[in-house]
Q: What sequence folds into this?
C-alpha cells in the first residue's frame, strides 16, 4: 500500500478529490508515520470525504464510527451477543458443566465487533473514519486516544487484542468543542477551510464536467459571495455547490440568472433565516451580476 507523494496527489485527483499541496503532503506524512490524521474545519469542506477517498485510492474497506454525545466503549469497541449467549445457556443447561459453559459463552464466537475492534482485527489495512469526534464526551475521547496510541484493546474475558494491521485513521472535527491535547499529540493535524474560487472551479470541473467553463466559473463566484456573508449561519458546503451545479445543468442553464438563482436557492441555503439574510443583503439580481463580473470579493 506504499505510495509516493506524487502518486498520492495523482490518485486523489483521479477520484475527484481536489486539494492543495499542503493537504496532500499532510495526508502523505500521516500515512508514512502511521499516525491518525485529525482534520478540523467547518461542516461541508470535505473532511469526511477524505476518509472515503482514501479507501477508494487504496482499494480497501472503509470502517466508519459516527460520534455522538453519550457514545461509549460498547458501541465503539465490542459487545457480547447476549441473545446468542442466552440461547446457548438454555441448550446447554443439562449437558455442559458450569465452567466449560462460561468459557464457551465468552469466546470470540459470541463477540460482536464494533468499528474500533473491527478495524484493528481486519486482515488487511483498512481506513477507519472516526467522524465528528468533537461530538463525543471527554471520557470517550480519553478512551479513544489510548486505543489510537497502542492500537490494541483489552477484553477482560479474552485478554489483549493487538492490531493485525495498523489502520489508516481519519478523525474529523467541526470544532464544536476543543479537543484534548492528549488526542492531538497522537495525530497529524490539518485545518480545512472552504476552497477559494479557483479551487472550487477545479472541483466542479472534476465532479460536474458537463457544466462547462462559463457556468462553472459563475457558480464558484456566486457560492463564494454567499459564504463571505458573515450573517449566513450555514455556509453552502462543497457537496451543495455540486448539487446546485448538477441542478442547473439539468435545467439546461449555461449562465446564472437572477430568476434561476431565486428558484434554486433552497439547494444552497437550507434554513429560512439564511434565505432571508440572502434576500435582504445580497439578492438574486446582485449575485447574478457579481458572478458574471468576477467580483466575488
A:
Amino acid at each position: 500500500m506504499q505510495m509516493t507523494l506524487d502518486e498520492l496527489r495523482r490518485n486523489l485527483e483521479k477520484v475527484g478529490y481536489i486539494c492543495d499541496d499542503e493537504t496532500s503532503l499532510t495526508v502523505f506524512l500521516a500515512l508514512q508515520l502511521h499516525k491518525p490524521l485529525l482534520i478540523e474545519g467547518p461542516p461541508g469542506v470535505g473532511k469526511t470525504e477524505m476518509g472515503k477517498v482514501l479507501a477508494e485510492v487504496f482499494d480497501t474497506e472503509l470502517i466508519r464510527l459516527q460520534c455522538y454525545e453519550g457514545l461509549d466503549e460498547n458501541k465503539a469497541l465490542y459487545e457480547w451477543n447476549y441473545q446468542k449467549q442466552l440461547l446457548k445457556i438454555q441448550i446447554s443447561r443439562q449437558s455442559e458443566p458450569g465452567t466449560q459453559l462460561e468459557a464457551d459463552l465468552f469466546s470470540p464466537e459470541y463477540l460482536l465487533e464494533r468499528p474500533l475492534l473491527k478495524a484493528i482485527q481486519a486482515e488487511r489495512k483498512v481506513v477507519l473514519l472516526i467522524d465528528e469526534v468533537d461530538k463525543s464526551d471527554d471520557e470517550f475521547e480519553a478512551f479513544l486516544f489510548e486505543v489510537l496510541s497502542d492500537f490494541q484493546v483489552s477484553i477482560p474475558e479474552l485478554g489483549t487484542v493487538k492490531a493485525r494491521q495498523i489502520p489508516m485513521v481519519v478523525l474529523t472535527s467541526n470544532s464544536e468543542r476543543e479537543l484534548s491535547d492528549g488526542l492531538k499529540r497522537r495525530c497529524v493535524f490539518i485545518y480545512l477551510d472552504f476552497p477559494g474560487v479557483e479551487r472550487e472551479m477545479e472541483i466542479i470541473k472534476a465532479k460536474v464536467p458537463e457544466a462547462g467553463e462559463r457556468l462553472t466559473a459563475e457558480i464558484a463566484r456566486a457560492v463564494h459571495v454567499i459564504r463571505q456573508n458573515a450573517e449566513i449561519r450555514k455556509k453552502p458546503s462543497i457537496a451543495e455547490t455540486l448539487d446546485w451545479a448538477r441542478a442547473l445543468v439539468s435545467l439546461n442553464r449555461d449562465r446564472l440568472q437572477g430568476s434561476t438563482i431565486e428558484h434554486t436557492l433552497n439547494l444552497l441555503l437550507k434554513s429560512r433565516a439564511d434565505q432571508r439574510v440572502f434576500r435582504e443583503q445580497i439578492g438574486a439580481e446582485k449575485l447574478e451580476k457579481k458572478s458574471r463580473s468576477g467580483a466575488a470579493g
Summary: The longest strand covers residues 168-173. Strands lie at 37-40, 62-66, 78-80, 111-113, 127-131, 152-155, 159-162, 168-173, 188-191. The radius of gyration is 24 Å. The chain has three domains: 5-70+117-191, 78-113, 197-291.
